[in-house]
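EI: anyone free to look at a 226-residue chain?
SC: sure, send it
EI:
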Amino acid sequence: MSYFTPATFAFLRDLAANNDRDWFAANKHRYTEHVQEPALDFITAFAKPLGRISPHFVADAKLVGGSLFRIQRDTRFSKDKTPYKENTGVQFRHQAAKDAHAPGYYLHIQPRECFMGVGLWRPEAPLAEAIRRRIVDDPGAWSKAAHGKKFSGTFELGGESLVRTPRAYDPDHRFADDLRRKDFIASVRLNDKQVTSPGFLEEFTDLCRTGTPFMRFLCQAVGVPF
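SC: here you go
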């Protein structure tokens, strides 16, 4: 079955053109019907495939505090005061995420800007250091996890990086570019047609499986089970 539909993208396009509280209040029924409910159905449907990939990640179809991100923006510390996100996001967090910064699976839905991602965004300094140390201690495992043929043929490593290799590491190391990373994430671009197709749940599941070596490496590096 299809979860997301062209109406999902139509609402998000209209929201981008009318990002204010009055418009949203008048169109909240569209958000509920075409964005929120399909996303919650997708989360529920993905719970079983996710459990087969790893029992340590959570698909939580709650309205608040679960896998679905809120549509409201946090504008307290931002110059941009537009009240709503112009996308919807779903994160399948590690069960340890409430107590530790841990890797996760992510789905981003936005007209012509869809993608899915795996990994750990902006880990705290001790965790980033643990990942770098494991890259150095087991470069073969990192090579397979982040630069293996299937993974690198599907995912693109991304995120921000330091200007220089951290002082404790050899700037000429074969993975010096990876040792400079602030974010240990990888993503796959998706088009709107893929996201609205009847087979999208299976496609998303396959992508998550392809990301398994990368996710396992990161989990082991930061000390959480995969």
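EI: The beta strands are 88-93, 104-109, 114-120, 156-158, 184-190.
SC: 👍
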